[in-house]
Design goal:
This protein has 383 residues and is of the alpha+beta class. Helix 2 packs antiparallel against helix 3 (135-168). Helix content is 31%, strand content 38%. Among the domains are: 35-42 and 301-382, conserved putative lor/sdh protein from methanococcus maripaludis s2 fold (Beta Barrel), CATH 2.40.420.20; 50-60 and 203-290, Efflux pump adaptor protein, beta barrel domain (Elongation Factor Tu (Ef-tu), domain 3); 95-168. It has five helices and 20 strands. A six-stranded antiparallel beta barrel has the order 3-10-13-12-11-14. Residues 368-383 have a biased composition (Basic and acidic residues). Residues 293-351 form the Multidrug resistance protein MdtA-like C-terminal permuted SH3 domain. Belongs to the membrane fusion protein (MFP) (TC 8.A.1) family.
Amino acid sequence: MLVLLLLAAAGGGAYGYTRLNEPVAKPKAAAPLPVPVTLGTVEQGPFALVSNGLGTVQAYNTVQVRTRVDGEIQQVAFREGQAVRKGDVLVQVDPRPYQASYDQAKAKKEQDTANLNNAKADLVRYTGLGAYASRQQTETQTALVAQLTAQVASDQAAIDNAATQLGYATIRAPIDGVTGFRQVDIGNIVNASGQTPIVTITQVEPIFVVFTAPEDQLPAITAALRKGDVPVEAWSSDGLTKLAEGKLALFNNQVDTATGTIRLKAVYENKNHALWPGLSVSTKMRVGTVALATTVPDNAIQHGPDGLFAFAVDDADRAHQRALKAGRSDSGRTQVLSGDLKPGDRVIVTGQYKVQDGSLVAEPHTAQAERPEASGRQIEAQR
């Protein structure tokens, strides 16, 4: 009996030793999850050739309104920031001294006109006397008539000058535009020799935008101008909001050799006053259209050590790096000048920083749909 118990104990010990030293089965490696990305499409179709630039809004006309006569300001007939029309009264300078000069000039002319009429009558009488009047009397009277005629003409010139000075006492808007801050208040004495303007008026309808373009685009701009108007859109400086649509008015007569650019000027109607003098804007100038252009979303283009490239995704959802040469950009898409991309190909737009050549990728909704199954396989393998 004792022998049987010892044999049973020995057998149990051997069995336990075997179980403790038996190698544990390792779980199978989990399949890699696809990299979440956003995909876009390679397209082919008409593509506008747009030149992007930065510019500054300039008033069509700017006038600093100053007085042309001396005197006290009796009335200010405008509000700061008011839209005014050409000829509107802005300021009234005390007109009384100039009115007096005008009246005096008129009275002087009337006096000299009376003298002239009397001299003419005497000349007629001397001429009628014939031989009874001496030649000296006739010539003297003729000279007097000429002298008084010239004096009357001089009086008329004095009247015109006095009327002009009187008109200057009423300061009017020289152009259509918007008034700025008033620099001189009512009751102050202004002088024609003073350098401080009463107010500045800027014309904002229409309005200009001055911007630059690279010098290598000058031939295309010149060719577009020969065909007709060249559209130029003005956008906010961040490029998110379109402010106005206009057209190219002119380009400068020389290239800036320091920067390799040329200055251009576009004109806008600006009826809604979206553009304001001094505002910084970005511009989009369309110089032509490519009938069949291959384009990709702007964000699909990446910079690598060997140049530009994009990740194309095949039917097995594998990403492959494709070298390319990019052209102009417009409305969120860039023209592909050369490269192994065909219309309809899928390209990665966001998420490239996690992608390598050959990586398995999927858009977020696809990746989420596959994730529970993959997690289940992982847990099963661990068991």
